[in-house]
């Protein structure tokens, strides 16, 4: 447990908020690596549009990781940014699509965003009862992640509003349904 935290929080509450943020830090580090993987492995007619759409997402998510790590440090804890920390705090499977079409990767990425945004909303709920500053940080980040997911879904949606990956529950099935 930390020997100090931010003013207005108990050491115990600061450590609890930091634990929630550590999960988000690991998720953001994993996401930015996954996004780069997609950036490098996307092929097909929509290659350049998707390739260029992904890089700004990578940079913003890297920034989110930095903001979260700095908040953890301000709370008096040590942010863990190692590959081992990603594995330790991971509650999801590793991204499972290799070289594939833009549609396939976007369909799989949509599921990645589903999981990340759902977990962020849970974290917002947990920290909101304790620390409005951290809650605000996560709310802003989650809003931008939802915007990125909208960008992804715009490529998957048909004229009737149905997503190409609507019934898929795994990345590989999502990719297959969108090919």
Automatic annotation (TrEMBL):
Which InterPro entries does the record associate with it? DPS_DNA-bd (IPR002177), DPS_DNA-bd_CS (IPR023188), Ferritin-like (IPR012347), Ferritin-like_SF (IPR009078), Ferritin_DPS_dom (IPR008331)
Any Pfam family hit: Ferritin
Q: Which CDD domains does the record match to this protein?
A: DPS
Q: Which SUPFAM superfamilies does the entry mention?
A: Ferritin-like
Stored Gene3D superfamilies: 1.20.1260.10
- Residue ranges constituting the Ferritin/DPS domain according to the UniProt record: 21-159
UniProt similarity note: Belongs to the Dps family.
Entry-linked PANTHER family:
DNA PROTECTION DURING STARVATION PROTEIN, GENERAL STRESS PROTEIN 20U
Question: Per its record, how is this protein called by name?
Answer: DNA starvation/stationary phase protection protein
Q: Which organism is it from?
A: Rhodococcus artemisiae
């Amino acid at each position: 447990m930390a020997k100090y935290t931010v003013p207005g929080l108990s050491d115990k509450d600061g450590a609890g908020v930091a634990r929630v943020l550590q999960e988000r830090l690991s998720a953001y580090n994993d996401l930015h690596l996954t996004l780069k993987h997609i950036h490098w492995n996307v092929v097909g007619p929509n290659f350049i549009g998707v390739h260029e759409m992904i890089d700004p997402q990578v940079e913003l998510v890297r920034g989110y990781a930095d903001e979260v790590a700095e908040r953890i440090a301000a709370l008096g804890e040590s942010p863990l940014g190692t590959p081992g920390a990603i594995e330790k705090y991971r509650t999801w499977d590793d991204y499972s699509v290799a070289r594939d079409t833009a549609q396939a990767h976007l369909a799989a990425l949509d599921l990645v965003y589903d999981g990340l945004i759902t977990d962020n909303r849970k974290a917002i709920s947990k920290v909101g009862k304790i620390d409005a500053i951290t809650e605000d940080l996560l709310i802003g980040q989650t809003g931008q992640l939802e915007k990125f997911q909208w960008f992804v879904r715009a490529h998957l949606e048909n004229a009737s509003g149905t997503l190409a990956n609507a019934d898929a529950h795994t990345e590989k099935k999502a990719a297959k349904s969108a090919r």
